[in-house]
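Please review the protein record below. Tell me whether the encoded fold seems credible here:
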Amino acid sequence: MKNSPDRAVLITGASTGIGEACALELDRLGWRVFAGVRNDPAGQRLGRRASARLTPVMLDVTEAEQVAAVAAMLAETLGDRGLFGLVNNAGVAVAGPLEALSLDQLRRQFEVNVVGQVAVTQAVLPLIRRAAGRIVMIGSLNGRLATPYLGPYAASKFALEAITDAWRIELRRWKIGVSIVEPGTVLTPIWDKAVTNTQELTETIPPEMMELYGDDIRAMQELTAKLVARGMSVSRVVRAVLHALTAGRPKTRYPVGIETRLLIAGAPFAPDRFRDRIIRRFIGLD
C-alpha cells in the first residue's frame, strides 16, 4: 500500500513527542495531516515546520465539544473520501505510589489515556469506515508489564490493549485495521513531565506517606532519569506507526525496541514473584 496525498490522517497529542514526529513525517510523505494540539502556540509551531497540507486542530480529547467539532470539520472537509488514518497518541503519565495518589489524579489518567481515545475514535469512526481505513493506538511496554509507582499509567495502557483487541475484531467486517504500537521509554516530553510530577509529589505528599515511600520514590526518580537519558529515538516509533498505516497486512501489535520485545516475550513465562523480584532489583528497591 503506497503513501498518497489522497489519504487523510488525524493524530491526537501532536503538540510534541511521538504525535508531532508522526505528523511531520506523514506530511513529508504527502498525507493530508490533521494534527490535534492543545493550544494555538503549539499549532503555530507545528505549522511552521510543515507544509500547507498539515492542519493543526484544537483537540483536547477530554473535551466533548472539541471532539465533536473536529469530527464535524473532518466530515465537511473530507466528504466521501473519509478519513483513512487515526493515530490515538494523546496521553499523560501519572507517577507515584497508588496509596498516595488522589482519585482525581487516577481519573485524569484514565480520562486522557483511555476514555479520550475511545471518544475520538467513536466520533470519527463513520469517516474511517467510509475509507476502510486504519486505527493506530499508541500503547507502551507498560501496557504489557506493570511496574511500581507507574501503576495508573500502566493500568491505562493495559486498558488500551483490551480496547484494541475488541475493536480489531468488531471492525473486521468493514476491513478497518486496528493496531497498537508498544514502545519502551522514548525520548519525549511525557517522561520529562513524569519526572517533574514525581518531584512535585515529594513536595506535596503527606509526611506519613513520605515516611513510608520516600526511599522508593527517590529510587524511581533516579531510575526514570536514567531511562529517559538513554531512551529510544522517536523515529523508531514513527516507523512502526507508518507500517501500521501503510502495510497491506498491518501487524496487530508493534513492540518497539529489542529490550521491549524480549521483556514482552519473556514476562508471561516468569513466575509472578520472580518477576517482581527482578523488577525491584532493577529499580533499586531491594
Summary: Residues 107 and 152 are 9 Å apart (CA to CA). Residues 8-186+233-270 form a domain with the Rossmann fold fold (CATH 3.40.50.720). The mean pLDDT is 90. The longest strand covers residues 177-183.
